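Hypothesis: this fold can be encoded by more than one sequence.
Test: take the structure tokens below, design a sequence, compare later.
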């Protein structure tokens, strides 16, 4: 069975993340979508909200398991859940350099785990969770944010930040 882990903070999940997940379920027998907790980050959405939003946004997709991990390197988490693959997205040159280094460091730890890189379509490639959150506030933010996040996430934005 080909098991892959697609991990991130997903604060919140975006259409780019969703594209990666949709591709991952086509490529692997099981895709573990895992929220990694970074103690240095300040999150807008709680862990419970992020788990719920991923579940609601991916509800119709097969072969997904949603999980979270804390205080663990991604490659060790992948090994612990029986994954032979780590799925990562590359949006730009900066992502490539960062992910290339991590791929080599992960391989030093667990050479049996392969990192698979995917590049999202141009329309969603440059959009990150941080960028989406940065749109909130100015007049008309709702129309912009709605373009880049799944409907359950947009509804959560409206609840948190008002219409």
């Amino acid at each position: 069975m080909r098991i892959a882990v697609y991990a991130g903070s997903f604060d919140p999940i975006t259409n780019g993340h969703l594209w990666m997940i949709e591709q991952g379920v086509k490529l692997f027998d099981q895709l573990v979508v895992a929220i990694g907790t970074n103690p240095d980050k300040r999150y807008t959405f709680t862990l419970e909200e992020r788990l719920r939003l991923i579940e609601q946004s991916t509800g119709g997709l097969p072969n997904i398991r949603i999980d979270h991990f804390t205080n663990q390197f991604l490659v060790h988490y992948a090994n612990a859940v029986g994954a032979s693959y780590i799925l990562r997205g590359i949006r730009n040159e900066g992502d490539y350099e960062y992910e290339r280094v991590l791929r080599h460091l992960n391989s030093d730890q667990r050479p049996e785990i392969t990192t698979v890189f995917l590049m999202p379509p141009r329309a969603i490639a440059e959009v990150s969770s941080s960028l989406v959150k940065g749109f909130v506030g100015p007049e008309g933010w709702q129309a912009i944010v709605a373009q880049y996040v799944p409907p359950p996430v947009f509804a959560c934005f409206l609840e948190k930040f008002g219409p």
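Strands lie at 3-8, 30-37, 64-70, 85-89, 114-118. The mean pLDDT is 94.
Hypothesis status: open.
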